[in-house]
Write a structure and sequence with these properties.
The complex is a heterodimer of chains A (about 300) and B (about 425). In chain A, strand 7 (about 150-155), helix 5 (about 165-180) and strand 8 form a beta-alpha-beta unit. Chain A is globular. Chain A has helices at about 40-50, 90-100, 105-115, 135-145, 165-180, 190-195, 215-220, 260-270, 285-295, and strands at about 5-10, 15-25, 30-35, 55-60, 65, 75, 150-155, 180-185, 200-205, 205-215, 225-230, 245-250, 255, 275-280. Helix content of chain A is about 35%, strand content about 30%. A 4-stranded mixed beta sheet of chain B has the order 2-1-3-4, sandwiched between helices. The chains are: A alpha/beta (about 300), B mainly alpha (about 425).
């Protein structure tokens, strides 16, 4: 395990921002943090980065405590984006890269590569304040990865981007993972985490409520989703044994069921009643798990 | 990576980017122009005089014998008055004054005792210097003529004119003489003003710099690469270096321009400001006290700046600090006329006022060395403790974003950096 958090707690007076969090993240993995605002994601990241000290517990990267002497190993994209508005893209990226231990010339070369990759080579000599929000975000991303960190921490990397740029950035993140970077990222978009992470942790009020490999989490959750679209009324399924929840949608219903056997029984029940347009058994989505565990909908 | 490396990267980045900003270049140019203007004040004044009606005054000598000795007397008093004998009538002279060819005209005549009297006419008599000079000239002429009338010898005349001997002496050894004090006052005043202005300006710059990094949220990236404390000091030193650059540039330009102008300046304006012999000691003390004052207020400004979330709040946040600087300057300005008053002595040891007031005392009085060293030591100790405290606040402050910015945030910021 490369990144280890052991019983990490952060208290501000009476209030616990993070409560007894233990996580291990293997090297070269992508790890997702989910949670509402105030769940403790950003505080956790700040503790990993050494910006604030945990009240209790240890955080190590490859058995080493992270501090300013290791800052060149780490890349960080903060949730609140920020660059110097008056400085040109090259000036500030080179400055930030040098602070992460890069040589000026190497930083310039690497910047060129990334600008080309994001199809914006002409921004090199523009002031940041002249760029659009989405493009500023690209520059911000470059600032966090230019020094080829071993551990990359991305706090809400895709928020505020249009779909085209989300894809562009996702590709870049996956590329970094392939080349061996360990990536920790947070998102409130379940589908991003679902799509990209093998391991994840759902946080709620500073506590990890679900934590582990995505596949295992889904499997151990047990419950499945059943979608039924039919030409006749499906209201009778409401009290059906094994149905935990029923949601009426525009074209039919979505059921949350205890296990696969329930689906079989429902299938034989509806089969004789008329035309069934759709009958699909699905893995639970992260959102379902989240709602179940946290007891409230996200967003 | 050697950690000190980061320190120098931030320091040079702060220094170089600030050096290149338009506002810095513009302020420097404006100050340079002012500096050149002050050091060339006499020339500028001359320029205006030459363009206008020079102080050309016609003399209508009704006696036909007073003009020449009168001109000689006036010349001793004021070289710049251009007197000319006027042969026309009063009416003609009046016309010439009205159309601006003459500043005024003077009618000289003799009274019943056969002594000179005069009457001066000009458009306005606001310029009292001219008629006072004329009057004095005529007075002296009259005294001379009167003395001749009562047949005094030259020796008697000299005795009459010999100025009274009046000595002033301070009983304290080493105390500055009145002349020295006057001379010191000018240079001390100018240096005080520079200290005041520079401390305020550069401390402001620091607070702005921190607030810009915070409000633009670039701070979070910065503090994840370099420790906030190292950042804070690198920034303070970077801006400090910038201030020294600016001051060295301005002072050397001013000094050079003054040197060129020195001959002309002698005896008039420079005596008043005490420029004729620049006291090197005073200037060294000014530099030391400026640097100490700068570090004191820059540290204060840095941690106050770290508490605000928006640039608009910076001025409000640092206004108590600015007040301290202004108060120090006001006390110092008062102290210029009474540098030895007990109030000044006491305030010269209060760290927030010391940079200006102790400098004032050092510049104006001959105080024992230990006093200035003690004051510097108190200042240094304050700077160090403020830096330790400020660094803690700064470390937490840069992570805090709130709607309001107030001094209560100091407590919150300290809490953020605590371990338990």
């Amino acid at each position: 395990m490369a990144l280890k958090l052991e019983h990490v707690t952060k208290r501000y007076g009476e209030f616990s921002a993070v409560n007894n969090l233990s996580i291990s993240i293997p090297e070269k993995e992508m790890f997702g943090f989910l949670g509402a605002n105030g769940a403790g994601k950003t505080t956790t990241f700040r503790m990993i980065l050494g910006l604030i000290d945990p009240s209790e517990g240890n955080i190590t990267w490859k058995d080493r405590v992270l501090d300013y002497s290791t800052s060149h190993l780490i890349g960080y994209l903060p949730e609140e984006r920020g660059l110097y508005p008056k400085l040109k893209v090259r000036e500030q990226i080179v400055y930030l890269a040098r602070l992460r231990g890069m040589e000026k010339f190497a930083a310039q070369k690497e910047l060129k590569y990334w600008l080309e990759r994001f199809n914006v080579p002409e921004y090199e000599n523009k002031k940041v304040e002249e760029l659009s929000k989405g493009n500023q975000q690209k520059i911000q991303f470059i600032a966090s990865v230019i020094h080829k960190p071993e551990l990359l921490i991305l706090d809400e990397p895709f928020s505020g981007l249009d779909p085209v740029n989300v894809e562009l950035l996702k590709e870049a993140v996956l590329g970094l993972k392939e080349s061996g970077t360990t990536i920790v990222f947070s998102s409130h978009r379940m589908e991003h985490v679902e799509e990209m992470c093998e391991h994840l942790c759902i946080m709620h009020h500073g506590k990890p409520v679900v934590h582990g490999a995505l596949r295992n989490i889904k499997r151990s959750f047990g419950k499945k989703n059943l979608i039924v679209h039919a030409d006749f009324s499906l209201d009778f399924l409401k009290g059906f044994p094994g149905v935990a929840k029923m949601k009426i949608t525009a074209e039919g219903i979505t059921l949350q069921i205890e296990n696969e056997q329930v689906a079989e029984r429902i299938f034989s029940e509806v089969a004789g009643k008329g035309f069934v347009r759709k009958f699909a058994l699905e893995e639970p989505s992260l959102n379902d798990i989240f709602i179940e565990k946290v007891g409230a909908s996200y967003e | 990576m050697p950690p000190m490396n980061n320190f120098w990267i931030i320091l040079s980045h702060t220094y170089l980017t600030k050096l290149k900003t338009k506002s810095f270049i513009v302020t420097t140019i404006v100050m340079l122009v002012l500096m050149l203007a002050i050091t060339n004040l006499n020339r500028i004044m001359d320029l205006f005089n030459k363009n206008g009606v020079a102080d050309r005054i016609a003399v209508l000598d009704k006696t036909g014998q007073l003009y020449t000795p009168f001109k000689g007397q006036v010349k001793l008093i004021n070289k710049n008055l251009k007197l000319s004998a006027f042969t026309g009538t009063e009416k003609e002279a009046e016309k010439k004054v009205e159309n601006g060819a003459l500043r005024g005209y003077l009618i000289l005549s003799l009274d019943k005792d056969n002594l000179p009297e005069g009457s001066y006419n000009a458009l306005t008599i606001a310029d009292s210097a001219i008629y006072t000079d004329l009057q004095n000239g005529l007075q002296q002429l009259k005294t001379m003529l009167a003395a001749r009338q009562i047949q005094l010898t030259d020796a008697q005349l000299q005795k009459l004119y010999k100025p009274v001997l009046f000595k002033k002496a301070a009983l304290e050894r080493n105390a500055k003489t009145e002349a020295e004090l006057n001379q010191a006052r000018g240079i001390v005043y100018i240096l005080l003003f520079i200290i005041y202005f520079a401390v305020l300006m550069y401390a402001n710059m620091i607070a702005m710099e921190v607030a810009i990094e915070k409000s633009s949220r670039v701070m979070e990236i910065l503090i994840s690469s370099v420790s906030p404390i190292r950042q804070m000091f690198a920034k303070i030193l970077g801006v400090g270096l910038l201030s020294i650059t600016q001051l060295v540039f301005l002072l050397s330009a001013g000094y050079y321009s003054m040197q060129k102008n020195m001959e002309e300046l002698k005896g008039s304006f420079s005596d008043f400001f005490g420029f004729s012999e620049l006291p090197i000691g005073t200037i060294i003390f000014a530099v030391i006290f400026f640097l100490l004052g700068y570090f004191l207020y820059a540290t204060l400004a840095a941690f106050l700046g770290s508490l605000v979330s928006r640039i608009e709040d910076v001025q409000q946040m640092i206004s108590p600090m600015s007040m301290l600087v202004v108060a120090g300057f006001v006390i110092a300005a008062f102290g210029l006329s009474k540098p030895d008053s007990p109030f000044i002595t006491v305030t010269s040891f209060i760290p927030f006022f010391a940079p200006m007031i102790m400098f004032l005392r050092v510049g104006m009085l001959n105080i024992p060395l230990w006093e200035s060293i003690l004051s510097m030591a108190i200042l240094t100790a304050t700077i160090i403790s403020l830096a330790i405290f400020g660094a803690k606040v700064y470390r937490g402050g840069v992570l805090m974003y709130g709607r309001s910015s107030s001094f209560k945030d100091i407590k919150k910021a300290l809490q953020l950096t605590k371990n338990k």
